[in-house]
């Protein structure tokens, strides 16, 4: 629903506020520039979507936790002035910050590395304060980062994100909490989250500021969410490789391997800047999106660099550095061992050359049945390739089901369990081991989709059902779950099939 439609379809004559103009909209709310008449000050008035407001649990949590969030006073967090409801319309009034969003700055392109690191620092400091107070944002993204006149940034929408995380949040308006481009793996799996989930999202924002695009891209949000779970941390391009430890420390798939706090990230950032290559901090990003505008002035970049250089480091615990080094090295060795396709052992039998074949001068003396077919000579090279592919597929299937759930199961096509099984079937369509492997991938999605549906996590269930149907579009069990998801998202009471048998 866009702001114009909301203005005409819902009574938003909220006492004490005079709406001037719409300034933004999203799937969950519309934002208006308004005047708080009692103080004659401009505010950003966020009016929640009527679909969300109709959910009684959401409405109650929105009001209760919004009032608590209004107590969060920090230079890098938007100040909330008022929250309430009138005539069924739920609203939040916050300070109006007219400097635009980080999303717009990224689209324009040309942010200097110094400016990017200051932005990341400001976001991390705001998150650190909120996390200490017990709040988790759940939707850190460029569109929620606003610029003050002095160039510092503030994070918006803490209360709304917190209020939406009720037990039924995954079914509200058919959406899960968070935005797929910036969603942590635990969010994508529908699991409970803490402040480290916000830090993962900060890592995705940092990556996008440097490269111009989010870390994972696909044709639909379900696939993007899965990529956060299954894909490795993306590598930065060569000019920014020295910043890779920051991105890796924020975007580790296991929350326990991320920076524990925003303060720990800021401390690591300053240490990295002190050891940065000559001129690296002054570098400007060259990534631009279509339609991007002008670059930030060099003077502003220099001013931001001064902020980076002048800040004091608080000293990150020394034990974390060797532990992280051992962990990364061990993970690399394990990944190499698990993910390298196995080479089939040399064949024990020697291939038969033409000299070993019966000669044409020895005709058969017996009459063979008409249905008899001469055995075809074995193509040893093909058989070796089939064995290699099957070994690789089996190893990746084991990895995807026992080590990192979902990773390397069916993506990418050329290096996943499903990909290897399908390559075998292209060579030998009747290969029983490859057929069983594909069936196991489908069974994986049946099992996990049913568990999600059984917990009432319909968005997660639908996501897994779609992945399974991408493997076998006619699987009857997944079709039943697909119908259940459609029923739940339309407000009905779905009937779930029994849990699938263990594979």
From TrEMBL:
Signal peptide region: none
InterPro entries (alphabetical): Kinase-like_dom_sf (IPR011009), Prot_kinase_dom (IPR000719), Protein_kinase_ATP_BS (IPR017441), Ser/Thr_kinase_AS (IPR008271)
UniProt-listed Enzyme Commission number(s): 2.7.11.1
UniProt xrefs under PROSITE patterns: PROTEIN_KINASE_ATP (PS00107), PROTEIN_KINASE_DOM (PS50011), PROTEIN_KINASE_ST (PS00108)
Top EC group: transferase
Domain spans labelled Protein kinase: 17-273
Gene3D superfamilies registered for this protein in UniProt: Phosphorylase Kinase, domain 1, Transferase(Phosphotransferase) domain 1
GO molecular function ontology, one term from the record: protein serine/threonine kinase activity
Matches recorded under Pfam families: Pkinase (PF00069)
Region (Disordered): 174-194, 344-364
SMART domains per record: S_TKc (SM00220)
Binding-site list for ATP: 46
Sorted UniProt keywords: ATP-binding, Kinase, Nucleotide-binding, Serine/threonine-protein kinase, Transferase
The protein's name in its UniProt record: non-specific serine/threonine protein kinase
């Amino acid at each position: 629903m866009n702001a114009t439609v909301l203005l005409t379809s819902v009574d938003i004559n909220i006492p004490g506020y005079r709406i001037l103009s719409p300034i933004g909209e999203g799937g969950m709310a519309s934002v208006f520039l308004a005047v708080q008449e009692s103080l004659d000050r401009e505010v950003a008035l966020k009016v929640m979507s009527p679909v969300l407001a109709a959910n009684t649990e959401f409405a109650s949590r929105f009001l209760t936790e919004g009032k608590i969030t209004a107590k969060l006073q920090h230079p890098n967090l938007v100040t909330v002035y008022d929250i309430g409801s009138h005539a069924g319309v739920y609203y939040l009034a916050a300070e109006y910050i007219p400097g635009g969003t980080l999303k717009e700055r990224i689209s324009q392109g040309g942010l200097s590395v110094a400016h990017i690191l200051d932005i990341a620092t400001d976001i991390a400091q705001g998150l650190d304060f909120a996390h200490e107070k017990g709040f988790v944002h759940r939707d850190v993204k460029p569109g929620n980062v606003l610029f003050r006149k002095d160039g510092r940034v503030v994070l918006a929408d803490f209360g709304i994100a917190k209020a939406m995380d009720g037990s039924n949040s995954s079914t509200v308006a058919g959406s899960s909490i968070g935005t797929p481009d910036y969603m942590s793996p635990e969010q994508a799996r529908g699991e409970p989250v803490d402040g480290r989930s916000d830090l993962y999202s900060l890592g995705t924002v940092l990556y996008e500021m440097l490269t111009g695009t989010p870390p994972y891209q696909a044709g639909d949000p379900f696939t993007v969410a899965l990529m956060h779970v299954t894909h490795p941390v993306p590598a930065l391009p060569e000019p920014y490789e020295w910043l890779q430890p920051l991105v890796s420390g924020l975007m580790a798939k296991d929350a326990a391997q991320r920076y524990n706090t925003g303060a720990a990230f800021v401390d690591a950032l300053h240490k990295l800047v002190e050891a940065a290559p000559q001129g690296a901090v002054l570098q400007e990003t060259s990534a631009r999106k279509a339609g991007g505008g002008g670059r930030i002035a060099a003077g502003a970049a220099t001013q931001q660099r001064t902020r980076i250089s002048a800040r004091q480091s608080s000293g990150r615990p020394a034990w974390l550095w060797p532990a992280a080094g051992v962990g990364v090295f061990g993970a690399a060795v394990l990944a190499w061992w698990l993910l390298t396709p196995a080479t089939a052992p040399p064949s024990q039998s020697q291939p038969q050359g033409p000299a070993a074949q019966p000669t044409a001068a020895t005709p058969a003396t017996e009459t063979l049945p008409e249905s008899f077919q001469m055995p075809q000579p074995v193509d040893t090279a093909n058989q070796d390739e089939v064995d290699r592919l099957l070994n690789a597929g089996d190893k990746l299937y084991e990895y995807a089901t026992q080590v990192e759930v979902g990773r390397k199961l069916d993506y990418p096509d050329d290096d996943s369990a499903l990909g290897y099984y399908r390559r075998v079937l292209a060579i030998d369509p009747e290969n029983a081991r490859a057929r069983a492997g594909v069936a196991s991938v489908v069974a994986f999605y049946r099992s996990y989709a049913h568990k999600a549906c059984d917990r009432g996590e319909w968005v997660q269930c639908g996501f897994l059902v779609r992945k399974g149907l991408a493997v076998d579009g006619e699987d009857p069990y997944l079709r039943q779950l697909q119908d259940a998801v459609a029923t739940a998202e339309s407000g009905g009471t779905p009937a779930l099939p029994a849990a699938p048998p263990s594979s």
